[in-house]
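Go through the following before class.
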Amino acid sequence: MSSGFDPLRPRELDLPTDVPLRSDGALIDVTSGEAALTMDDGKIFAAPSDPAQLGDWRAQLVSWREGARARHGVPRRYDEPASSWAARCFTVAQVWLWDELFFDFDAQRFTPERFLADARERFGGLDGIVLWHAYPIIGIDDRNQWDFYEVPGLVEAAAALRETGVAVFIDYNPWDTGTRRAGDDATELAATVRRLGADGIFLDTLKKADPEMVAALDAARPGIGLEGESKLATERIADHALSWAQWFAESEVPGVLRAHWFERRHMQHHIRRWHRDHSEELRSAWLNGVGMMVWEVVFGVWVGWNDRDSATLRRMLPVQRGLHTWLVEGEWIPLAVHEAPVFGSTFTHDGSTLLLLANTSDVDVAYQPEGAGWQPLHAGDSTGTVTVPARGIAAAMRVTGTEPAELDAVRAALAAETPVRDASFPHRRARRLAPRVDARSPLADEVIRARAAERTVTVPSGEHVLTVRYRARETGMYEGAPYVDEWKPLPPRLHDQRTLERVVDISRAVRVAAAEVSEADYALYLDAIGEQAASRDPETPATRVTLARAREYAAWVGGRLPSEDEWQLAAVQPGFRRRAPEVWNWTESEHSDGRTRFVMLKGGSAHESVGSDWYVDGGVRGPEFALKFLLPGRGMDASPSIGFRVCWEETE
């Protein structure tokens, strides 16, 4: 790479932090000074490869925690009953509001029950869901991030999630400063929390919220869970009950998560959004007693989990949920097992010890825990031997005295959860959808149809080779993930200008309208169906028209929307023009991979939201430029920055 950055390798700041051990025969002081500050800033504390160093390593972890609590204070938020839910929120899914598992485009209604049923079957259920709303389509017009939560039916969908015991997170975009301004962010976010009954906030691009915002959100929902993206500063663990363990590189021997070691009730969610193998994240989450972020559709790109990793999560969750007390209150000994390729942690509570094991190799290992009385919770035998599957996990418990009441339910939940070997990636292909227009739709009279088709440019039949330009966003383009198994994408991999070549065969010549449908043109259609037109200017492009309505109008005048390729070929013909103000044009290019709908917009617009690269591309664009626009429902695709034009196929 010209940047000197290898996207397939962790960056320096992603690497685990070494724990200083001995110098001149004595342990280095990690309670204050430079060593303490270095550990304060770590993501994961690297584990020693030499088992002989484990005693010193654990002693240093304890010393650092004592010093950090002396410097930053002991967190008290976790003692509040209203905040206790976060420590049990092991598995969170991130879902675009218009994910086809969460929203039915045909019925135009939210389907949280369908999303949850799929998650129960494949992952063992969810404890929380982040309802992702605005990015990557925000900036298409002046609507701000709060506007994108103003969706009919969303309040009811959020309530349905909470009724099943699933926590609802909403997303906060601090970078949204270039759209319409309303109240201050803290006030607007608090109002959204109240309206949707949210339990938590995902702080997009932020590691932590300002104390003033924390106070405003606590007032809106006592005990609200704030979850920053990536590493959380040690001093802010006190008021942020959760955080992402995003792009945390692990040591060869599994290490310890710094934030969770500081406060056991602080929940972290491991996530490497572009990776197709999550076994290392799962292993770290398991041995540390924390959770996972399940994110199968990253801003319109399918990055689904393989069967092996899904099965591993199903095997983890009954133990984590059922024996939660051991994980947060028990005596935790990290790397109580250090017998490569098997590593393990123990958690002892009320006389009983929970043993969590992980296998870093590609073959199953039959592991015999030291001592007698071990009961495998996953597959094992009567001797206490535990089978730890390849790149998988297993658990056992040794009971002293009365058996914990929770154990029967855990065993029952695990009875059918066997490991799976298939780690192949479950590919999905986006396919072009046929336009959905009601065959019973009315047809304009001949005069209107003739007038609509008066001024056109012709795209000849035959094979055409097109160069398409676009900005590399996380949405990708037509097929596949733009970043596979990559660590955090950075420029020039992210947001640079790219090209692709498309070969299109036009089977029959197409006449494309020379200009967009005007307000006056569209008003005639609204009159015909009994609706009121807002404006009737003959030179201004009709906007605030959904894709469905644009298709209906095109059918009404006897035509259809041009494909993105037909639009581009027409745009270089003499006579093709843009109405003012310029607006993006809908094209007949709706695609779906079964989870995401998207459409290619052409032409650019006079509107441009500025101040952040996360906004949709704005400004007037050349014919070759294309914008992949994720399609929302419930009329949210209607925009003052999107219009359309019609085309007609030549008859033989």
